[in-house]
Design a protein that fits this description.
Helix content: 25-40%
Shape: globular
Strand content: 25-35%
Largest sheet: 5 strands, parallel
Number of helices: 6
Length: 283
């Protein structure tokens, strides 16, 4: 069934020690959609660095995440276990920087601390830093706690409902047909594969690919194809046009011979709301 909906982007922020809580939050957002999206015309779009960020160079990794993920979020849910996370140039940790960035932009931020028993291998330095941050944050607002994933799921629903009650979602103008514009990004990738022949000799091979991503929240890039005029690039991607759905990425392999082409380019073509579009990228 096709229906119009307002998309609310919800970022899940945390250090790396709360994987179960992250999955519980992701599950809570999706189950909210199952129960409410059709009749309320609202979709919660989870944002996680694992799936919502693309490889990029030129800045500190946290700056890239801030630009690609935090800036897109309408709501931020931050989770802590026994670690505060790795320090960044600007904050106590990446998660703390994401919290501060969202608060500075006036976005709702919900912070939850795990109340589960401490593990035997707890990092005392990380735990002390986390407790200091928790004490400091307590002076600025309320935070929540959770004993297990089921309790966290319930609290996520409560937080989302509180956010939606403050915003007249129905007053948000419906997007034009097709939703927001398609935004295509192309990121070159390179990795090395190692293999051993029957005599135990080791050889390596450089593998090149292009990661093509549709960064639109709602619009699909239909009949998407790639092409290049460079005689240094040999395409191995399939010629069949493909639909690249909103928020989706696809990887295309190619051979690059190097040589004298200082600025190899690839052109991505697609159909958007019945209109043919294209963009050329340097790779």
């Amino acid at each position: 069934m096709v229906f119009s909906a307002t998309v609310v982007c919800v970022m899940i922020a945390s250090p790396g020690d709360v994987a179960e809580a992250r999955e519980a939050t992701y599950s809570a957002l999706n189950s909210w959609n199952d129960a409410n999206a059709t009749n309320r015309g609202i979709i919660l779009l989870p944002l996680r660095w694992e799936t919502s960020a693309v490889p990029e160079t030129g800045n500190h990794p946290q700056d890239i995440l801030n630009h690609q993920v935090v800036a897109r979020a309408d709501v931020v849910i931050a989770l802590f276990g026994v670690r505060v996370g790795a320090e960044t140039p600007n904050a106590l940790s990446g998660t703390v920087e994401e919290i501060e960035g969202a608060l500075g932009s006036g976005k709702p931020v919900h912070v939850y601390f795990s109340g589960a028993p401490l593990p035997n291998d707890v990092d005392i330095g990380q735990l002390s830093a986390l407790r200091a941050f928790k004490s400091e944050f307590q002076m600025r607002g309320l935070f929540g706690s959770f004993a297990n994933p089921d309790e966290l799921r319930m609290k996520i629903w409560q937080a989302i409902e509180a956010d939606l009650a403050k915003v007249d979602v129905g007053s948000v103008s419906a997007p034009a047909v097709g939703g927001d514009p398609v935004v295509i990004r192309v990121q070159p990738q390179r990795d090395t594969s190692i293999k051993t022949d029957g005599r135990g000799r080791i050889s390596s091979k450089e593998n090149y690919s292009l990661e093509v991503r549709n960064e639109s929240n709602t619009s699909d890039a239909e009949a998407l194809t790639l092409a290049t005029a460079s005689d240094r690039i040999f395409q191995v991607w399939e010629p069949t046009p493909r639909t690249l759905h909103a928020g989706q990425s696809r990887r295309y392999g190619f051979y690059y011979t190097g040589g004298d082409d200082p600025d190899p380019k690839v052109t991505v073509s697609w159909v958007e709301n019945g209109e043919e579009k294209s963009k050329t990228f340097s790779i």
